[in-house]
Amino acid sequence: MGDKSKPNDSKGQEQVYQPSDSIVKNAHVADYDTLYKRSIEDREGFWADEAAKLDWYKKWDKVLDASNKPFYKWFTGGKTNIIQNAIDRHLKTWRRNKLAIIWEGEPGDVRTFSYHALNREVSKFANVLKSMGVRKGEIVTIYMPQIPELAIAMLACAKIGAAHSVVYGGFSVEALAERIQDANSRVLVTADGGWRRGKITDLKTIANEAIGRSATIEVCITVKRTGQDVYMENDRDFWYHELMGLPIAGAKCETEQMDAEDMLFILYTSGTTGRPKGVLHTHGGYSVYTATTHRYVFDIKDEDRWWCAADPGWITGHSYIVYAPLINGSTIMMYEGAPNHPYPNRWWQMVEKYGISILYTSPTAIRGLMRFGDQWPQRHDTSSLRLLGSVGEPINPEAWRWYHEIIGEGRCPIMDTWWQTETGGFVITPLPITPLKPGSATLPFFGHEVAVVDDNGKDVQTGEEGKLVLKAPWPGMARTIFGDPERYKEVYWKDYAKQGWYKAGDSARIDEDGYVWIIGRIDDVIKVSGYRLGTAEVESALVSHADVSEAATIALPHELKGNAIYAYAILRTGLQGSPELEDAIKKHVSHELGPIARPESVTFVESLPKTRSGKIMRRVLKARALGVDEGDLSTLEE
Ligand code: WTA
């Protein structure tokens, strides 16, 4: 039992979990304070050292270029390609024959790729893309289930210097159409479908409908996953496996040498207005930042089997399923389907079968599995696990303890990592050696100065709620919003322009030990099951239903999902609300945006609380729904 982390009562009721001796002994970072101090006093030196651990075609001239704030640049003058580090450099070592990806489909089919095999598949598909005329700087949209070809398509784009825009496979027609259009994508890579809870999803049908709504797509490449019948249009639609069998898909492809600041991908994320923003990341800084955070926070060793059970369609999957683990030469586990299919032991079965040593997932998934009881994980040998991770929303202490006790058997520290699409990688996070408090993301990662402030930028009192800001730039930061630099400035940098701080959009508090406790979003972003949605996006899906003239959505706490969406709708004159109409409207939102956006309920109302300037006061709706004080109503119009 000597290997268990030890809870001890510190101040009051709060339990602090100390790391075990073996965790401390083997950790990459043995002394947080010293390295942290160094990373703040000599930020550029710290990041230069980390960057030097990667390969570069040409070394950078300048670590940080802050001449045009807030458009920071990192490693300018440097030449690289993320593929140089994620694949190419491993081919020159023994890792060539190491497993890069172990993939299991929901029906139980298994495929594995060594780094050598991954390189072959990526090179072949890179050549296919080239033969379709894909050029450096062009954005390819990828809309796929979680199958190896999703990672292969992303990597192939990067290899030839094209950027990718992955649209989460759970999104639907309008969400996909809008993203294709904004990125002006000419090429779409998709699949006929995927497996989810024993059923087939209809990706190609959705893709066809989306292509119909956005005129930019000229070529659509479809992976055959399920074999269902799908409509393929002559001269536009091609089967992936057929292209990969042609001479155009040669197994040799040079990796394109990119400037450190060249675009690697855009990833659309929800904000306060209806139009999703394409958050832009680059080759150089993003490589350095994701690899460094992954290695230090999860103490990555060559013998690890790493499983980030997110979806590659979100930033967590981009950074920590695909790029960082490949750069660090890890063996990556990927799983296509639902955690509880066919039974709630599916994950634990795979942990046992593949000897997973690190599992990184979301509080929603943990809560979802917890409700089936301890007997499901306990049927399996999960002793291979060494570390656990959590991301996406605050983890409630009850779920934290279950994860720690039942899944980690008291042995595995939990890395509760706070970060965002815009940050590229972890920002507030423990290291394996950090004493843990359930529910706190703990301390800033190296190079970061984090504060919780009021509207004037003054630190709030210890333990008080305020706005979370990041005071200094970091290599993995988003460079801009694709096609809309003004919006980038406005959303993240305007509120604290005088100080030059980044506004995260979250509220938080910092306790007497300097530990950060994230409370939640303070803007109109909703986190449903850890997925990020905007109230405005859901509202625009609601009003696109023929019977709805106006709508508002709010998030209310939900036991399993963290938050759930509640909608309020004003119907067109003369129409009456009914349970059937409510159901039809929910279905419509699912069809337009995706099942994750489906509201829990739609309440039909005569009017919505608005300010005199016509803005919906969601805060008032929320207070009414929760039966709490409505606060300051002086700007209310009614
Ligand atoms: C929330 C996901 C509490 C937060 C990586 C943030 C968290 C938003 C945590 C970004 C965490 C993420 N504890 N809250 N460990 N991690 N969040 O862009 O509100 O999908 O602003 O990135 O998720 O969501 P995004």
Explain this structure to me?
The protein has 638 residues and is α/β, with parallel strands linked by helices. 30% of the residues lie in helices and 24% in strands. The protein contains 19 helices and 32 strands. Strand 26 and strand 27 form a beta hairpin. Helix 10 crosses helix 11 (315-327). It is globular. The mean pLDDT is 95. It binds 5'-O-[(S)-ethoxy(hydroxy)phosphoryl]adenosine. The site of 5'-O-[(S)-ethoxy(hydroxy)phosphoryl]adenosine has 23 residues, from helix 11, strand 26 and strand 27.
Topology:
Layout lengths: L5 E4 L5 E4 L2 H6 L5 H10 L1 H9 L10 E4 L7 E4 L2 E2 L1 H10 L7 E6 L5 E5 H17 L7 E5 L4 H12 L3 E4 L6 H11 L3 E5 L2 E3 L2 E3 L1 H11 L5 E5 L13 E3 H5 L13 E2 L3 E7 L7 E6 H15 L7 E4 L6 H13 L3 E5 L10 H9 L3 E4 L1 H8 L4 H4 L8 E4 L6 H11 L6 E3 L33 E4 L12 E5 L9 E2 L3 H9 L8 E9 L5 E6 L3 E4 L2 E4 H9 L4 E11 L3 E10 L7 H14 L8 E4 L13 H9 L12
Helix pairs in contact: 2-3, 4-5, 4-11, 5-6, 7-8, 10-11, 13-15
**Structural class of the helix and strand makeup?**
alpha/beta
Bin the helical content. Answer: 25-40%
CA-atom Rg in angstroms: 24 Å
Proportion in β-strands: 15-25%
Counted by DSSP, the helix tally is 19
User: Taking strands numbered 1, 2, ... along the chain, how are they ordered across the largest sheet?
Assistant: 14-13-10-8-9-16-17-25
**Based on the structure, what is the oligomeric state of the protein chains?**
single chain
Largest sheet: 8 strands, mixed
Mean pLDDT across all residues, rounded?
Answer: 95
Amino-to-carboxy terminus distance: 64 Å
Name the ligand types: 5'-O-[(S)-ethoxy(hydroxy)phosphoryl]adenosine
Shape: globular
Q: Identify low-pLDDT runs.
A: none
According to DSSP, the number of beta strands is 32
